[in-house]
Amino acid sequence: MKPNENGIDRTLRLILGVVLLIASYMWLGVAAGEITGIIAAVIGAVMLITGLVGFCPAYRLVGMSTCKVNH
Q: Is the pLDDT of residue 71 over 50?
């Protein structure tokens, strides 16, 4: 998998992923099975994973990349 996220994109994904995971447990009721909490936790986990690995499958599907192209 060739990275398709730049540093800023990855950092924002990591921050947003952590915030969503914390919010899902603290306020959105993921432990109680609330659907909003579950959705927030899943989105947060995906954001966190894509931020860590630097690859976004959705970017690949639409042919997008935030990395600089080296020519």
A: no
Sign of CA dihedral 59, 64, 68, 71: positive
Question: What's the CA gap between 23 and 67, in Å, rounded?
Answer: 29
Q: Do residues 41 and 24 touch, judged by C-beta distance below 8 A?
A: yes
Q: Is residue 39 part of a domain?
A: yes
Please write the tens of the pLDDT for every residue from 46-55.
999 999 999 9
Residue 14 lies in a domain: yes
DSSP letter (8 states) at residue 66: -
Report yes or no: 30 and 44 within 8 Å, Cβ to Cβ.
no
Residue pointed to by tokens 């994973």:
49
